[in-house]
Amino acid sequence: MTDVPTTDEFWRWPATKLARAIAVGEVSSREVVASHVERIEAVNPKLNALVDVRPDEALAAAKVADDMVAAGVELGPLHGLPIAVKINSDQAGYATSNGVVAFADEIAEKDSVHVGIMRRSGAVFLGRSNSPAFSYRWFATNDLYGRTINPWSAAHTPGGSSGGASSAVASGMVPLAQGNDIGGSIRYPAHACGIVGLRPSVGRLAHSLYPPGQDQALSTQVMAVDGPLARSVDDVRLFYAGMAAFTDPRDPFHAHGASAPALPKNPRRVGLLRDVGAKAPSAVVNQSLDTAAERLRAAGYEVDEIELPLLEEAWRLWYLLAMEEFRVIMPLVEQIGDEGMKKAAAAYYSCAADWWGEAPGLVDYMNGYARRGTLISELGQFLQDYPIVLLPASAEEVFEQDADISSLERGREVVAAQWMNMAIPLLGFPALTVPTGVANGLPTGVSLLGRRFDEESILDAGTVIESGTGILTPIDPR
């Protein structure tokens, strides 16, 4: 075959191409994994995106995958592909450290729901991706493993909390990485590193974030999701299919195989939302939105400027419901968390106090959840007229490292710039982040918000936007 490269080039291939080649025996999983191991050895010392990499285990798993191909057995969507797992997800035999020194030896006895599903889909796990302590910042640094670097710029964040995942994918260490998102932790890292990230509808993919015997906070149950990060929309589709292939009774909210809602009257109508009053988008962000809108119009989409103030309310409401629940573990954070997490939390609570007071009570909390249901209904109705909303991935360009803790004032600006990253999880709808280009040496991008259980519509629109950008990664660290 003329298009099969030497082993050291497999790390450049798209996941979709690798999956097809492995499935038909054109290349071996072992060759593919070996190529990615070499890439990790070359760039991970500079980026610190992956921790606890065990090449021998990965190569042994790849050999099993190759034996299955040779035996002609039925293969899963992710068969033989190297994939990174986030350090806040249980992977049997590995520490679920969540970036906390005190949890460094918390070895998982069994896979979490989503890790088990990826394994059943054929994934070969190659390294654990770094995150901030407690996975609660848009910056990937902690006292246990140190700082993860953005391959585009060491001075800027790779995003968080799935920042190790985004840096690893963008630099070619793995073609696919798993992340989770309760406040932009898939979408923002994808944006920061110039790749694609999908936050599915709540209930679309089975997942779990806490070990057996621990109760999940209500906000985690109804807002958090797991999802894929990859270098292209097609690769995200592949990973999404692999994560959707199986169910697990441990997830009480999983709606396996839930069908998309009936097509609206105008399925190609897009609402362009620039601002909800939290923070005006920068010139670069506005240009990214204009670029995406132009590409969608050229492909036959109708794009109208809209206002959607309910998302501003949802953004503020997140800081009541999620942060009041997080307050329960703040004594633990104060005891074992790192200084970065403590300072970031101070900025979050400072903003929350502006809206909800210093000590919201039970009635505030109950009324907040009641209001959440109303906002979900209102957004669902709005999306009947505009089934896709085009909006910023952040109101600012990629943040400088530690922007959230450089000062309380700057931390509050970061919170305001990320309004969309809280509003969407609070309501449980799907969203996709896709690159639009490069400005000032950093990737630019936009987000697409869609109807619940209608991931396909935003993936289709993302493909259109991506077609004008091209695939920006993998890149060497700069």
Automatic annotation (TrEMBL):
<dbReference type="InterPro" id="IPR000120">
    <property type="entry name" value="Amidase"/>
</dbReference>
<dbReference type="InterPro" id="IPR023631">
    <property type="entry name" value="Amidase_dom"/>
</dbReference>
<dbReference type="GO" id="GO:0003824">
    <property type="term" value="F:catalytic activity"/>
</dbReference>
<feature type="domain" description="Amidase">
    <location>
        <begin position="31"/>
        <end position="459"/>
    </location>
</feature>
<protein>
    <submittedName>
        <fullName>Amidase</fullName>
    </submittedName>
</protein>
<dbReference type="Pfam" id="PF01425">
    <property type="entry name" value="Amidase"/>
</dbReference>
<dbReference type="InterPro" id="IPR036928">
    <property type="entry name" value="AS_sf"/>
</dbReference>
<dbReference type="InterPro" id="IPR020556">
    <property type="entry name" value="Amidase_CS"/>
</dbReference>
<comment type="similarity">
    <text>Belongs to the amidase family.</text>
</comment>
